Amino acid sequence: MTEHPPAPRGPLTRTIADLRGSDGPTLICTGGVHGNEPAGIHAAREVARKLHALGSSGTAPAWRGRFVAMVGNVAACNAADPTLRYIERDLNRLVTPEEIRRARALPPSERHAEQQELLELIDAINETIADSPHATTLLDLHTVSSPSPAFAYAEDSLPARQLGRSLGLPLVLGFEEELSGLLADYTTSELGVLSLVVEAGTHTDPASVSVHEAAIWTVLETQGMIDSANDAARFDVAQRLRTAAGRRAGRVFDIRQRVPVGSPPLEMLDSAQAFTRVWKGLTRVATRHRPDRTETLRAPADGLLFMPNRQPRKRPEDDAFFVLRPVWGRLMWVSARLRAMPMAHRLLAALPGVRRADEHSLHIDPSIAAVMARDVLHLFGYRVLRGTPAPYHRPWTRVAMACIALPRALFRSLGGRRANPAEVWIVRRHRLDL
Q1: Of 97, 105, 170, 308, which one has the greatest count of Cβ atoms within 10 A?
Q2: Alpha-carbon distance 395 to 377, whole Å?
Q3: What is the DSSP letter of 4?
Q4: What is the mean pLDDT of each run of 10 residues along the chain (434 residues)?
Q5: Per-residue b/e over 36-49, b at no fewer than 16 CB within 10 Å?
């Protein structure tokens, strides 16, 4: 049955739609977490309209579960300026337990706009989860500022990988170590909700709406809420996603490095396009205009340029761009097998420079567990919670670093010396892998 039909068009409120079919799981869709990204809101409205019609048609079976669609940053989405991303702070960098506690401790009159949005959004999500007797999934819908194939990203846990790959889009892993405060990371790591982010295209491209709609229908089918995505959507959703993904459909990538905008802000070169190949120290990607000179920034790592920032207004803490590398498919298979083997995790904890903190966490001495530590930890399904992993290097550089690191590691191990506690990494297995 349907509880609330889709919200009317006009000034936005938090809830776009809250629909119920027969008994089943819950899907929460969030759109407009950034004020200049309305495509997810339009797509969620269209899906809600079709689900409402499907539930009212009298055909059996109709659909199962609960579909809830929310606006992320209502204040920014209702602003007069359609290019406004956020009012004071990026909401999608605030969603951490610490920021939530800090916002709750303030009187409402002292909270800035995004602190109020944060509390209202998290409370709405928590209420939905608490009222859902079955599994809940969150789908966060975004668009980008620079032309790019559509893609998805998720934390590097096995359930999130599986859901992300069901879309057939390029899947990007590793954001949770480069950026704090992501909504999808909070709902996954803190609330235990399977979460996925879809970036459908550019902010102003009308096609981004249909890409988001296709992604929502695919997740509804994957989670068992509808029998056929194509029948419910009334178009070929897989073909729509394949077209949006282009030649990178189904590929998996890992974040290598993030570069912030800084001050004065970096300006991306016209040649710096998403998913183009870049070489460390060689490929020119951006410029920084200082009062007395113009600096040229070259790629900080080998890989593929990702999400070059072409927002009309940038702040120093925003992301200028990322560098990705492809993930070998066979390595994904090996990783899945290792994560399921308790003995493998016991052996990992017994390696030099590794010490078990609790059942699912490790302390890593980076001066002993050198060179490949981050790659190995990812293979076993651990994420770095505290620490600053060294930048990724080319293979021959790693060999040279290993030759230097091994004698130092042996000396420290034999001498029984421990690293400075401030230098020790804290790593933990992904919650959904447990």
Answers
A1: 170
A2: 18
A3: B
A4: 46 94 96 96 96 74 91 96 94 97 96 98 98 96 96 95 96 91 96 97 94 98 96 96 96 94 96 96 96 95 96 92 94 94 92 88 80 81 80 63 64 61 86 92
A5: bbbbbbbbbbbbbe
With tokens 């802000």, the residue in question is 265
Amino acid at residue number 275: F
Residues 341-371 as b or e (16 or more Cβ within 10 Å = b): eeeebeebeeeebbeeeeebebbbbbbbbbb
Strand-pair category, 425-429 with 151-154? unpaired
**What value, to the nearest 5°, has the Cα angle with vertex 45 and ends 44 and 51?**
90
Superfamily of domain 15-250: Zn peptidases (3.40.630.10)
Sheet holding 361-364: strands in order across?
354-358, 361-364, 425-429, 382-386
CA-based radius of gyration for the chain: 23
Annotate 360-406 with DSSP letters as a single string. Answer: TEEEE-TTTS-SSHHHHHHHTTEEEEES-PPPP--HHHHHHHHHHHH
Which of helix, strand or coil describes residue 258? strand
Compute the distance between CA of residue 305 and CA of residue 321 in angstroms, rounded to an integer. 7
The Cα 419–Cα 58 span in angstroms is 67
Distance CA 231, CA 316 (A): 46
